[in-house]
């Protein structure tokens, strides 16, 4: 139903218009309302934003039609207006058209012409409204996409040029979780405004890194990120992109931590867990919200690997399922982790920055091989490593294990 406001001070016009268009009113095609002058019309429009079209005379008491038209044009979305006047009033009609009127009708009113003109303008209004709603929907969609996807992927999704299916499906992906050590204590210690500024800067730096590596931010969880590679777009090198991203995040987070500490903030290290496998991915927002995410063991394991860094003393923990998907992967074996809720051990690695191993890394791998094979000299090898580099958390971890009588590479993570 379209609402039409007729503005005219002629006392008999309302009854005549209602009589002429009673069938359209009865069929609920038109809803007719009336005002005696521009002032009353503006009051009705303010109370009833559903008005689709105004037909107005020019010469009226209190407020004339041209003044009313000028007031209407000040709105962000002015109501379409048709001016009704006499042939001899062409100067005013021209002023009305220049002022934003859609069309004009002449007096005495020809009601056939009246109906044709009104229907034409209503169609134009509907078409303009449809275009405006589509534009607003596109802007909302663009804003939502920009929150989750890298700029190039968001642009491809918006343009419909990429083969992305946001509905539920099973797909091989790599999941990544990040978290800041000791962040809860920082929350309690800092004023809200300071904490907000600090956290926004940190998250912005990390999401920039994710987007540069074509990752999808599935969720922001306070100080943590949950990131997907290989979804919504298929990426054959999703594991490689994820590990490269993890190393870049580590570099960016360490830089941010140094900056924060220089300003007096005790910002903790960023821990990262990465795991690959098959997951159920898709938009699970129930039609009301956009919630593109992944579900499955691959996600749970990635999250637990992030948490395992606390026990291991590492900042990045990558599963063998991820590492073996990267032809040129370079990293140090951490051990075979038995994660909480799992009974089987999972081989894990610490990737090396720039994919380059140094002499210390080679010595570590040689010492780790002694543990793996229960060969003699493992304790001495790790003691030498710790003596030469006391800041190596993995070497220190395995030395403690050996001193405590533990053997092999299996490590239980509570």
Q: Strand pairing plus helix content: what structural class?
A: alpha/beta
Largest sheet geometry? 9 strands, mixed
- The global form is elongated
- Order of SSEs: EHHEHEHEHEHHEHHEEHEEHEHEEHHHE
Please give the alpha-carbon distance between the first and last residues.
65 Å
Structural domain count: 2
CATH architecture of the largest domain: 2-Layer Sandwich
- Give the oligomer, counting copies of the same chain as homo and different chains as hetero: single chain
Strand content: 15-25%
Helix content estimate:
40-55%
Gyration radius (Cα, Å) is 34 Å
* Count of alpha/pi helices: 15
Here the CATH topology of the largest domain equals: Alpha-Beta Plaits
* CATH H-level superfamily of the largest domain: Nucleotide cyclase, GGDEF domain
Name its key features.
414 residues; 47% helix; nine-stranded mixed sheet; Alpha-Beta Plaits; 15 helices; alpha/beta; Rossmann fold
SSE diagram, text form:
Elements: E1 2-7, H1 13-20, H2 22-26, E2 30-35, H3 38-47, E3 51-57, H4 65-72, E4 80-86, H5 90-98, E5 103-107, H6 111-148, H7 151-159, E6 169-180, H8 183-189, H9 192-212, E7 216-221, E8 224-229, H10 238-262, E9 270-283, E10 292-295, H11 297-312, E11 316-319, H12 320-323, E12 331-338, E13 346-351, H13 359-372, H14 378-388, H15 393-403, E14 410-412
Helix pairs in contact: 3-4, 6-7, 9-10, 13-14, 14-15
